[in-house]
Design goal:
6-stranded parallel β-sheet, alpha/beta, Rossmann fold, 354 residues, 42% helix, 5-stranded mixed β-sheet, 11 strands, binds nicotinamide-adenine-dinucleotide
């Protein structure tokens, strides 16, 4: 397997293979780009079918963080790590301490946080070996979902303004797919502004809560994408915008928290051709990582949430650029991110000093 020639390599600055025989740790830390600042990104633990699958995931996720951080206005670059293992079976103190030592060996070029398969207590074990951790309970911000939901809410407001020409969500119908952590808090914001909610979930208790608290109307999980609504907010799974769902969509806006909403990149253009405004997922769902970036002894919640609210204006800029260049909003977002991280003040200062 070649790493430099890997299809997801995309000019990564550094890829570290970590092996600790004593604890059984096998991990990969990928640092895509640090022009704007040191890399920040979660650690995923997954029983990858092959080493190649683990490398592919690390490279793809790490690159994604560069784009996400650049558009969220963070002083961070993009990185991510993966531990090869089964999170239900292979976790141990020794494993996470070894991971913490590897993170520490990078001297702050990479800051680790939780991701799929890794929870706050796991990161707290890593924190015994390194200060380069984020999203821990002690001195941290805790559950990022309320911040993510707030960012999605501000993003929906921006999309409604741009596509529907309205300054309020009052009376608009919003389909929320998945009313778990983020979906629930999103429903609360939408209901408070007078939007009508149509919801779907596979967990009955989650549905009961939003029906009781926000008078939401429930539809079957397979019917939510085709619901007769103004806005469709995927907040459960990825790849909900695909060849099968696209022709059924009645919404004029797709804006939700789920990662990787487009099954393939071409679906961004397919949405544009159908006149559906898409709020690119990694822009609208950045609220969690934004508040995590504010963590520390001087954490100021109102300042962090004001930063999250900037997602509104970032999306308006992306929508305007997409219109001006007649490209998909997903493409316009990528180009704007690249402008920011490829031409960073840090890199310019370094060059000027040389
Ligand atoms: P969650 O697990 O709390 O909620 C997901 C909900 O979707 C659950 O209630 C689940 O029952 C439901 N669901 C699962 N399959 C479904 C289906 N087929 N149809 C309808 N509902 C279904 O997760 P979350 O933290 O709320 O995250 C939701 C999405 O947002 C995920 O894609 C996640 O990656 C993304 N995201 C979350 C955050 C965050 O801060 N939590 C940040 C960025 C992105």
């Amino acid at each position: 397997m070649s790493v430099f020639e890997h299809r997801e390599f995309d000019g990564h600055e550094q890829v570290v293979f970590c092996h600790d025989p004593a604890s059984g740790l096998k991990a990969i830390i990928a640092i895509h780009n640090t022009n704007i600042g040191p890399a920040l990104g979660g650690c995923r633990m997954w029983p990858y079918a092959s080493e190649e699958a683990a490398v592919t995931d690390a490279l793809r996720l790490s690159r994604g963080m560069t784009y996400k951080s650049a558009l969220a206005g963070l002083s961070y670059g993009g990185g991510k790590s993966v531990i090869i293992g089964d999170p239900r079976r292979d976790k141990s103190d020794a494993l996470f301490r070894a991971m913490g030592r590897y993170v520490d060996s990078l001297g702050g070029r990479y800051t680790v946080a939780e991701d799929v398969g890794i929870s706050v207590p796991d990161v707290e074990i890593m924190a015994k070996e390194t200060a380069h951790v984020a999203g821990v309970a002690a001195g941290g911000v805790g559950d990022p979902s309320p911040a993510t939901a707030y960012g999605v809410y501000k993003g929906i407001q921006a999309a409604a303004k741009h596509r529907l020409g309205v300054d309020t969500l009052r009376g608009l119908r919003v389909a929320v797919q998945g009313v778990g952590h983020v979906g629930y808090y999103l429903c609360r914001h939408l209901a408070a502004e007078g939007a009508e909610l149509v919801v779907a979930d596979i967990a009955q208790d989650s549905l009961d809560r939003v029906v009781r608290e926000f008078d939401a109307h429930v539809v079957a999980p397979e019917a939510i994408a085709a619901a007769a609504v103004d806005i469709y907010a995927p907040c459960a799974l990825g790849a909900t915008i695909n060849d099968a769902s696209l022709p059924q969509l009645k919404a004029k806006i797709v804006a939700g928290s789920a990662n990787n909403q487009l099954a393939e990149a071409r679906h961004g253009e397919a949405l544009r051709k159908r006149g559906i405004l898409y709020a690119p997922d990694y822009v609208i769902n950045a609220g969690g990582v934004i508040v995590i970036s504010h963590e520390g002894p001087a954490y100021d919640e109102s300042k962090a949430f004001a930063h999250v609210a900037q997602i509104h204006d970032t999306l308006l800029e992306i929508f305007r650029r997409a219109d001006a260049h007649k490209v998909a909003t997903s493409e316009a977002a990528d180009r704007l991110a690249e402008e920011r991280f490829r031409k960073s003040p840090v890199r310019e200062r370094r060059t000027a000093a040389a």
